[in-house]
Amino acid sequence: MEKELAKFIEDAFKPYGDFPARKDVTRELLSNLEEKYNDLKSQGKSDQEAYQQTTESFGDVKELMDEIDSTEGTSLASSVHKFKGVAIEEADLNGANLTDANFSGSALQKTNFDNTDLTNAVFTGAAISNATFNGAQLTGTKFTASDLRNAKFNDTKLIRVQSKSTSLQGSSFENATLNESTFKTTDFSEASFNDSTITNTIFEKTATTHTTFNGATLTNVSFHFSEVKKTNFDGAKMDKVTYALLKGAKANLENVTVI
After folding, report:
1. Mind listing the domains of the chain with CATH numbers?
2. pLDDT tens across 122-144, in order?
3. Angle between helices 47-58 and 22-42 (to 10 degrees)
4. Which end of the chain has fewer CB atoms within 10 angstroms, the N or the C?
């Protein structure tokens, strides 16, 4: 089934031509789909059932990728806010005002976004692994079909952030503030939300295997159709509704305080 999933990803991105982040993004998204497929198979699904549910979880590709032009990327010199399809790995954008910036299709690995204002910024089909967003302001920011493995969002404010079909595996959100944000089909495996404050936030069909919420405070947080049996909530504080929902999903809440 690996070949079928690879063809699915290839066909999905075919209309958008080449862009700097394509190789990294498609490779990571394929890895996520393979992991999802294998998980469904381990649950007793047939090959066809597992394949169908896996590809359906990816969502509407056109909707995901509308922000990417099939033409060559825009030059940095043309506009401070037009970063579509550029390759600026390891750039230092610390403290910059990047309100409304569009980084779709861009290669941004190891870029420094610390203390930046990324209000309403868009990252679609972007390769952003190992980037840092520490202390940044993310309000209304959108991450779609992007590779954010091992990114750091420590002490960051994420307000009304939307993430879909994105990998945040191994990422760090320590001491971060998340409010009114939505994460759909997002991979948070081995991520850390230690000592974070999470309010009115939805985790839907997310992967949280070996994700840690140690010492975090969760209020009105839901994990719809998310696997939380291997998620660590040691020392976390949460309201009664969040606690009840997680308990119903078989999460280990032995060392949790209900507030």
Report:
1. 2-65 (no CATH), 66-259 (2.160.20.80)
2. 999 999 999 999 999 999 999 99
3. 140
4. C
